[in-house]
Amino acid sequence: MDIESIKTQIESDIKDVNSLPALQEVRVRYLGRKGIIAQLTNSIPSLPQEERGAFGKEVNALKNKLLSLIDEKEKALNATSPKQTTATVDVSMPGVVQELGRLHPLTQTIDEICNIFMRMGFSVVEGPEIETEYNNFSGLNIPLEHPSRDAFDTFYLKGATHLLLRSHTSPVQIRAMKARKPPLAIVVPGRVYRPDAVDASHSFMFHQVEGFMVDTNIKFSHLKGILEVFAKAVFGEDIKMRFRPHFFPFTEPSAEVDISCIICKGKGCSVCGRKGWLEILGSGMIHPNVLKNVGYSRAKFTGFAFGMGVERIAMLKYGINDIRLFFENDLRFLKQF
Amino acid sequence: MKVTYNWLKDFVEINIPAQSLAERLTMAGLEVVSLEEKDKDFIFEIEITSNRPDWLSVIGIAREVAAITGRKLKSPKIISHKVRKSPFELSQGKQSHKAFTVKIEHKKDCPLYTAKIIRDVKVRPSPEWLRKRLELTACRSINNIVDITNYILFTYGEPLHAFDLDKLNSDTIIVRRGKKGERMVTIGEETRAFDSDILVIADKVKPVAIAGILGGKETEVTEGTKNILLEAAIFNPVVIRRSRQRLGIQTDSSYRFERGIDPKTVESASLAAAKLIQGLAGGELILKKDTGLTKAKTKVINLGLDTVNNILGVTVGATKVKNILNNLGFKIRPKTKNNLSVGVPSYRPDVNIEIDLIEEIARIFGYQFIPKSLPSVMPSLGAGGLREQVALIKNILVGLGLNEVITYSLIDSGMLKSFGTLDRLPIEIQNPLSTEQEILRTTILPSLVKCVAYNLNQKQEYINIFEIAKAFSRSSESATKESLALGIALCGEKSRLLNQGRIKDEITLLDLKGVFEVLFERLGVKDYLFVTTGPEEAEICIGKKKVGRIVNLEKEILESFDIKNKNVLVAEVSLDPLLGEANLEKKFIELPAYPGISRDISLILKEEIPAGDILGAIRSEAGPLLKEIEVRDYYRGRQIPSGYRCLTISCFYRSDERTLTESEIAPVHTLICNVLTERLGSKIR
After folding, report:
1. What's the farthest any 2 CA atoms get from each other in chain A?
2. B170 vs A320, which has greater pLDDT?
3. How much of chain B, in percent, has pLDDT values that exceed 90?
4. Which of A84, A200, B200, B287 could form a disulfide linkage to B117, CB 3.0–4.6 angstroms apart?
5. Model confidence over B555-574: pLDDT tens digits?
6. Whole-angstrom Cα distance, residue B246 to residue B389?
7. A331–B460 C-beta distance less than 8 A
8. Average of pLDDT values for A142-168?
9. Does the distance separating the beta carbons of A156 and B29 come in below 8 Å?
10. Which CATH number does B597-684 carry?
11. DSSP string for residues in B333-402
């Protein structure tokens, strides 16, 4: 077939086309790997040397002509033909997606707490869950045989007299202070253990976040300032706070920190026991004996420390009424967070 | 500690209503946990911190009320009595003319013991006012003598005990340690056994009371009692604490002795009791006997006013400081302009150093008047280290659809046994409350399987959970080890709604492998390998070292967790070696400048030939042009003879120097195909 008749054929073929799929067929017939244009190109080497150039040019021109015709036709079809009648996507159907898992609500709470303090320049340090009696008690100014220890019922390990499961995260204070020199600004999240019978508000394993800061010239007013930033970041700008004197062996002066009840806004409800206040953490200026125990100069350095129960914060924040839910790990519970 | 409004008013003028008083007390560190109006009085229930034994008395709380309201304490009159010194005679015909004596075996156990003998009392019900006061503070009224000892205990904070003198077997009271085999029936009608850890009050024959804790039934004051021996003493707090813990009895007495008694209160409380007894029960105080000395030296502390202001971050002012301390009973002597010498009253064993005084000042000054300020914090440059790596792992796993769980580190040892992982010695707990707290887990997996079982019971179809927590073990009796582990458990049918409809897929070990491949890739762990160790079990190795395993759990194990007809796939990996190999440093590699060519090979091969062998053969034969190789698809089924499977492997060839041509690839590809057919006996489709 000569080029000219192919050209005519092309023109009539394209003219007859009235749908995009039909146009695609034409495209394949002429331009495909084994299409007519390819056959023409492949025939070039078999031609006499002097004809090859001119023939090649003609084939090329034909190809360009074809491409522009197809292009035109495609535009024309797109413009005139009504929208393809493929079914409309039913967007009320569920989306197609790989489901994400969830971090445990306690992990999310710990992360939130730590992030708030990290924004204020604190760094996160962790410590072992098996602790020495010294780090858990004596080093923190808790005498071994004293009623102040009653608040810290503790699991002891069999066969290792002075080892126990830490009953609070405070032993990390001793570890961190012994390992580093001031200035220090540290938060410590972690698991702690106390032999408590399990009920809606008690668990023998729970989580705490401890925080402390040591430097020259750290004051009680700093403690108040830092903790206010924290409480407002977690519970909202409009909460009220109060610092109530309390006793902890490892801090002095010590304070318990209450926020106005987030449920009743301070009017009194069942969550706050009609008091209008919710206790959220314990705090105070680090006791000079603790500073002495880690080898810091009591004349030069002061510091504050605070500690809170993560479960309590999470329960208040999410309105969870039973601590056991955290450890049952019902997926219907976990997937709410 | 319960105290009433009217009772407090015996010792201090109160000019504010009960509700405001409760608030003021709370804000001074005496947290009022409940306030109740009853019988024209108000009952305050106050939580007393363990450092303040002085607050375990109405007078102690009244002193605080005085300090926070700026009033003076009405001091209780110390009553002195003429004591007729007559020889002590035992009634019941046992004539003994020796003087009554008190013997203290160890001075340390009992620094002070005072005894008073009151003769011819009439035991009867208490008068209305006394009964009411005790009952308002939840103390049962017994009879006038017992009620008086309780009333004085609550008022002064000094525990007293009254014995029926005539029931004692001798004229000697001995304060000594218990002996093995000794027993006594207590007032509560319970038989208690003693040993040398328990301090007792005894006559010459046997114990008559558990010192500082509880009296004996035999010498109890009853309606028939005529003569009484009134005991007021100081016992060693640690000894009382040990006795109390050993016997498991907590009483109002032991509670106070454990926290410490004001030595100066002992005599005044005892005399006040004697006076009340004589007033309400008649009788005559005929003997006073004090054994032991308590010459407590007054503690003096130097207080720098600058220190107060520096610690608190507020200027309190010298006058204010002096007023606060004075009202609390401290004796102040100015030393210099900025220094005070402060004498500590005997009822404040908790005040020993300067900071103790600063706390007192802050408390009464009011924490609410201390301003808030922000310290300057030196920012830390170091990254979060381990915690950040763990957070990254958690996020990757959550991204793969897994849900994080948190389970107890303490478990029942039976749980571990049924799991059969006894390669590591568990650490046992000395004092578990239940079997569920017997040991520290050596592996996270049993807890995860328990969690799977729980969720199956809740009718969950697909359970995919993980936990990162410590696993504990011991290498010898006392050498303990704790290290972070990652556990994963999968159970149920994986199903997803896609555009083509719902697809369901049975989970296999490859689901777990996939999780770890992504994890390793994202953590930059390169040198890892999964080594088959059983039909449905494989070890995970990093750099030839075993770091964990993936396994489809056996039926027997699952049955011990009440899981039936389900597959549970679990994985556990030690995080320390994993994180040791992690490399989170990222480095940019130039994007390819030339396009590559992809060639698929579809082959049928025997089931027992691992895909890994095929990929390995291709890799070793292909030469440098082969850049990537992957299993595109696999198929078993009708078109394939049984015992065979079909794999489609995609090879991607590329050069960094030029655009590859067909003719360069063809020989390499042919070579590969030949190796696969000739050496590995597979058939190219």
Report:
1. 113
2. A320
3. 71
4. B287
5. 999 999 999 999 999 999 99
6. 47
7. yes
8. 86
9. no
10. 3.30.70.380
11. EE-SSSEEEEEEPTT-TT--SHHHHHHHHHHHH-GGGSPP-----PPP-S--THHHHHHHHHHHHHHTT-
Q: Which residue of B has its CA nearest to A287?
A: B355
Q: For residue A119, what are the CA distances in angstroms to A111, A122, A176, B380, B384?
A: 12, 7, 20, 11, 13
Q: Is A317 on the interface with B (CB under 8 A)?
A: no
Portion 172-201 of A in contact with B at CB < 8 A = 183, 185, 191, 193, 195-197
* Chain B (39-58) residues lying within 8 Å, Cβ to Cβ, of chain A: 49-52
CB B372 within 8 A of CB A228: yes
- Chain B residues whose beta carbon lies within 8 Å of the beta carbon of residue A210: none
Pairing of strands B568-574, B2-4: unpaired
Query: What residue ranges do the domains of chain A occupy?
Result: 3-80, 105-334
Domain B101-291 of CATH type 1.10.260.40: no
Strand B228-234 versus strand B160-164 pairing type: antiparallel
| Residue B113 pLDDT grade (very low, low, confident, very high; cuts 50, 70, 90) | very high
Q: Which candidate in A158, A186, A302 is best for mutational testing of the B interface (most B CBs within 10 A)?
A: A158
pLDDT at residue number B384: 62
Tell me if B456 sits within 8 A of B564, measured CB to CB.
no
Instruction: List the structure tokens of A180.
Output: 């580093």
Prediction ipTM score: 0.89
Query: What are the structural domain ranges in chain B?
Result: 2-69, 101-291, 299-368, 386-581, 597-684
Nearest to A239 by CA among A271, A274, A280: A280
CATH code, B2-69: 3.30.56.10
**pLDDT at residue number B377:** 83
pLDDT band at A336 (very low <50, low <70, confident <90, very high): very high
Q: How confident is residue B255, by pLDDT bands cut at 50, 70 and 90?
A: very high
B403 in A contact zone (CB under 8 Å): yes
> Does this chain's domain B101-291 share its CATH topology with B386-581?
no
Token code pair at residue B636: 């078993």
CATH topology of domain B386-581: BirA Bifunctional Protein; domain 2 (3.30.930)
If you search the block for the tokens 């967007």, which residue do you land on? Answer: A91
DSSP state at residue A204: S
Cα separation, A68 vs A58, in Å, equals: 15
Residue A220 Cα, gap to closest chain B Cα (Å)? 5
Angstrom distances, CA of residue B168 to CA of B164, B203, B218, B230: 7, 6, 9, 13
| Domain over B299-368 is classified CATH 3.30.56.10 | yes
CATH superfamily of A105-334: Bira Bifunctional Protein; Domain 2 (3.30.930.10)
